[in-house]
Specification:
By secondary structure, this protein is α+β, with helices and mostly antiparallel strands. It is built from eight helices and nine strands. 31% of the residues lie in helices and 23% in strands. It has a four-stranded antiparallel beta sheet. Strand 1, helix 2 and strand 2 form a beta-alpha-beta unit. The longest helix is centred in the N-terminal third of the chain and has 14 residues.
């Protein structure tokens, strides 16, 4: 059932699993309220603490602090001056910019220092409301992203999503390819 559909659909549920919560970032406060209500009313298989943590991409800095290798990232207001400071401080010529609250590659853009003002003006409303994550552009993204799927902490399988030639985004809107992959043993453990 859609999270933003009739609440009666969830009234008698013994448990809820959050799966495809399409558009939650466009109605973030409503989604937050709904998840809190569901966690209070029934068993929510997705930890409410994890759901809260995942609502804003501030978690990228927390992952980095915990030793997880992530692209260098800054969460800033969606303003030319704030994004421009990141470019100045890092020396980057280009960077990936995405809404601080978002999903599925929605409104993810590759900004160039030389055309920053015009590009920021064209960013989505979600970015203006939530702020943005400005991330180091890593050219090796052309090799794709490897997702390791685990159940109860046990590795199950891996999928690699690759963007099409000339693109850096690998969500389905950009016609990425998906292939099963066997990662090196040390990665799967």
């Amino acid at each position: 059932m859609p999270w933003d559909g009739p609440r009666e659909a969830f009234a008698s549920a013994d448990a809820i699993v959050l799966r495809s919560t399409w558009g939650y970032f466009r109605a973030l406060n409503a989604f937050r309220a709904w998840t809190e209500a569901m966690a209070a009313a029934t068993r929510l298989f997705n930890s409410i603490d994890l759901v809260r943590w995942n609502l804003r991409k501030d978690y990228v800095a927390k992952l980095a602090a915990a030793g997880v290798r992530v692209p260098r990232s800054f969460v800033v207001p969606c303003e030319v001056s704030a994004i421009g400071r990141v470019f100045e401080e890092t020396g980057w010529a280009r960077a990936v910019v995405k809404p601080a609250s978002g999903a599925s590659g929605h409104s993810v853009e590759l900004l160039q220092r030389a055309t920053l003002a015009g590009q920021v003006a064209g960013l989505a409303d979600e970015a203006r409301q939530a702020g943005v994550v400005v991330q180091e552009f890593l050219p090796e993204i052309a090799d794709g992203e490897l997702s390791l799927v685990c159940f109860d902490g046990v590795f199950s399988h891996a999928i690699r999503k690759r963007p099409p030639p000339g693109e850096f985004r690998s969500n389905s809107r950009y016609r990425s390819t998906r292939t099963a992959e066997t990662p090196p043993l040390q990665v799967a453990q």
